[in-house]
Design a protein that fits this description.
By secondary structure, this protein is α+β, with helices and mostly antiparallel strands. Helices cover 18% and strands 38% of the residues. It is built from 2 helices and 12 strands. A hairpin with a 2-residue loop joins strand 8 and strand 9.
Length: 182
């Protein structure tokens, strides 16, 4: 299966993504806790910071973005974006339709197909998750959560290789369960 770059374009109204890492080790792997970062999370010790070569959203700069992984194509990216107004002020049905359109816009340049929106959590925050497929094979998971004017976004991406998928999805689960906004 061909490698697909993670370079994404476009977006509707929301935001997403991440990329630069640092942290110290402990029994559960490493902890990302960079000065100035609006979040912390834990990740496996066998992964390291990876550089992402492209923006996810044209015209939308993240507040903070970092990525850990094997390489840029097999990585977990964490980012925060600022919403125009607190999440509580949006009409939920309209907001979710916009989120669905955003995910389709992120998937389209990679020729991926988004699955259905599912309830999910990022740390203690409730949110939504989408699987992106290349034909019938899941190759990415996007998860969004919101607090006030903050959007927390986690993208987990892997090539169509069972070992890479296992490694990245394990890291993705650890990041998603441990991420906390400051």
């Amino acid at each position: 299966m061909p490698r697909r770059p993670l370079a994404l374009v476009s977006l509707a109204a929301l935001a997403l993504l991440a990329g630069a890492c640092g942290g110290g080790g402990d029994a559960g792997g490493n902890r990302y806790e960079d000065d100035g970062a609006p979040f912390t999370f834990r990740y496996p010790g066998d992964l390291s910071e990876v550089a992402l070569s492209a923006k996810e959203i044209r015209g939308r700069e993240p507040v903070w973005r970092t990525a850990i992984g094997v390489d840029a194509e097999n990585a977990v990216t964490v980012a925060t974006y600022k919403l125009a107004q607190p999440i509580e002020q949006y009409d939920q049905a309209t907001f979710l339709r916009t989120l669905d359109r955003t995910v389709r816009a992120l998937a389209r340049p990679q020729k991926l197909s988004p699955g259905e929106r599912k309830d999910a959590k990022l740390g203690a925050l409730a949110g939504w998750s989408y699987e992106l497929k290349d034909q019938d094979v899941v190759v990415q998971r996007l998860t969004f959560a919101f607090r006030g004017q903050q959007q927390l976004f986690v993208r987990c991406a892997w090539e169509d290789d069972p070992e890479l998928q296992k490694q990245v999805t394990a890291a993705c689960d650890q990041v998603a369960s441990s991420v906390a906004l400051r």
